């Protein structure tokens, strides 16, 4: 039997997890826009640790961290899983004095949480995806001004997530345009293309599957100049 209390799951947990999945943010790389917010939170509250935490089915995952190397922890250990039970911030001034957390591995071990202040990331549909939280290794409290700033920062995180979700929906809409309209979705980063089934693949593979086109390989003039200058020099002198 565990010596700490795991958070109870909400009655609408399945809907909350589905909402979280729509943002397609779990497991993504750090981004400056979120890192700026956790940095501001840490400085504002004078705490060594600040996190943007998302609570998934079995773990809490950190999109952005200040002062903590871990990228995730088990959900059963998560303070944030308790914090998302309510729309209001959850402030624990000293975790050692709270029966829910005094034996929690994150209190008895690294990062030795004492002060925890979690501000739920609540979507317009009232799904609480996780928290923006600050943590200290000594007991403490937040001032009224710090509470106001943290609530504002949490709203900004949700705004960024909403922009992400809407952008993804727009991309999906563009991807669904039929091939008769001569639009082929191409990833701006890896240059893969998306087929009618929603799968991404390299253009050569896509064309091989969908057309009778054959391929030969060569090197364009630009790549010759950039990667094989000695060949270009040899050709010029021949």
What secondary-structure arrangement, pairings included, does this model have?
Layout: H1 13-22, H2 32-45, E1 49-55, E2 59-66, E3 72-74, H3 79-83, E4 90-92, H4 105-108, E5 115-122, E6 128-136, H5 144-175, E7 193-194, E8 200-201, H6 203-210, H7 221-227, H8 229-237
Antiparallel strand pairs: 1-2, 1-6, 2-3, 4-5, 5-6, 7-8
Helix pairs in contact: 2-5
Q: What does this protein look like?
A:
This protein has helices spanning 13-22, 32-45, 79-83, 105-108, 144-175, 203-210, 221-227, 229-237, and strands at 49-55, 59-66, 72-74, 90-92, 115-122, 128-136, 193-194, 200-201. It is α+β, with helices and mostly antiparallel strands. The chain is elongated, with a radius of gyration of 24 Å. The strands form two sheets. A six-stranded antiparallel beta sheet has the order 3-2-1-6-5-4. Strands 7-8 form a two-stranded antiparallel ribbon. The chain contains eight helices and eight strands. The chain has two domains: 13-171, Beta-Lactamase, CATH 3.30.450.40; 179-237, no CATH class. Helix 2 (32-45) runs antiparallel to helix 5. A hairpin with a 5-residue loop joins strand 2 (59-66) and strand 3.
Quickly describe the structure.
The chain has 238 residues and is of the alpha+beta class. Helices cover 37% and strands 18% of the residues. The chain is built from eight helices and eight strands; from the N terminus they run ααβββαβαββαββααα.
């Amino acid at each position: 039997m565990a010596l700490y209390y795991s958070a109870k799951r909400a009655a609408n947990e399945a809907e909350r997890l589905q909402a979280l999945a729509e943002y397609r943010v779990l497991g993504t790389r750090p981004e400056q826009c979120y890192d700026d917010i956790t940095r501001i939170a840490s400085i504002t509250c004078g705490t060594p640790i600040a996190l943007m935490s998302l609570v998934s089915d079995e773990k809490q995952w950190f999109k952005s961290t200040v002062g903590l190397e871990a990228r995730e922890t088990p959900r059963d250990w998560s303070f944030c899983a308790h914090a998302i039970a309510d729309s209001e911030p959850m402030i624990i001034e000293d975790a050692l004095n709270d029966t829910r957390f005094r034996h929690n591995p994150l209190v008895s071990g690294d990062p030795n949480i004492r002060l925890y202040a979690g501000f739920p990331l609540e979507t317009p549909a009232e799904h609480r995806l996780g928290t923006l939280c600050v943590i200290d290794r000594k007991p403490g409290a937040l001032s009224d001004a710090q509470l106001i700033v943290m609530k504002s920062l949490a709203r900004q995180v949700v705004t960024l997530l909403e922009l992400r979700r809407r952008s993804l929906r727009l991309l999906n809409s563009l991807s669904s345009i039929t091939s008769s309209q001569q639009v082929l979705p191409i990833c701006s980063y890896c240059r893969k293309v998306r087929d009618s089934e929603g799968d991404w693949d390299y253009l050569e593979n896509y064309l091989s599957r969908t057309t009778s086109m054959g391929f030969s390989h060569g090197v364009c003039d630009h790549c010759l100049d950039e990667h094989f200058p000695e060949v270009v020099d040899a050709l010029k002198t021949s």
